[in-house]
């Protein structure tokens, strides 16, 4: 690993083992969200664990979207996106929305947010807003959303830890 000092510093990690890297960062517990939209191509959504609050003024959140995703381009083309923070009993839903080539909304109960984005019934919380910035970093896009609506409900969160849902030793 090398680090160059000065303007344009570069961190080179060419020799790092990808599996080991995933194991190390997997020790950070994350919540699980499903990002949704009513796109021009129809309903779209995907599971995401890289989500967080970014700013209070203005109210911004961010999430990471895989550049290889089939769903992300559909969501991106929508004027409004929804972020559904999943509850602890929604692991099956997280798995479906992480799968390519299936009707992810089959059997899913949802209501439209004020901007039309699907709000999944039973989610722990819901945020809706407009994508205001997208930048590509490696194999993911970093997406910034300005929030127009939010709501939370009672329950416990679905968490992702060490390559799976829930806590394990």
CATH class: Mainly Beta
Radius of gyration: 17 Å
Number of helices: 3
Into which percent range does the helicity of residues fall? Answer: 10-25%
Class of secondary structure makeup: mainly beta
How much is the average pLDDT?
Answer: 90
Give the termini separation: 30 Å
Describe it:
With 169 residues, the protein is mainly β. It has a single domain, classed as Electron Transport, Fmn-binding Protein, Chain A (Pnp Oxidase, Chain A), CATH 2.30.110. Helices cover 12% and strands 44% of the residues. The protein has a seven-stranded antiparallel sheet with strand order 5-4-8-11-12-7-6. A hairpin with a 2-residue loop joins strand 4 and strand 5. The longest helix has 8 residues. The radius of gyration is 17 Å and the shape is globular. The chain starts with a strand and ends with a strand. The N terminus is likely disordered.
